[in-house]
Amino acid sequence: MIINVSNTTAFNTTTFTTIPPLEAIQPPPPWYVHYLPEFLIAAGIISTALTFYLSPELRKIFRRAI
């Protein structure tokens, strides 16, 4: 007795289509991130001016240099 097994068909097969992964939407940065460089520059200038204004010895050196 010969059994023909070459005609077997697979049932219940599913093919999955690949969906590209969705990238998470990043929230906008806080408001101060845009102004941070300006804040740092202004803070440096103000601190330097206050240092010269409040230090009598530095004022003397600065006046002699000019």
Automatic annotation (TrEMBL):
<feature type="transmembrane region" description="Helical">
    <location>
        <begin position="32"/>
        <end position="54"/>
    </location>
</feature>
<keyword id="KW-1133">Transmembrane helix</keyword>
<keyword id="KW-0472">Membrane</keyword>
<protein>
    <submittedName>
        <fullName>Uncharacterized protein</fullName>
    </submittedName>
</protein>
<keyword id="KW-0812">Transmembrane</keyword>
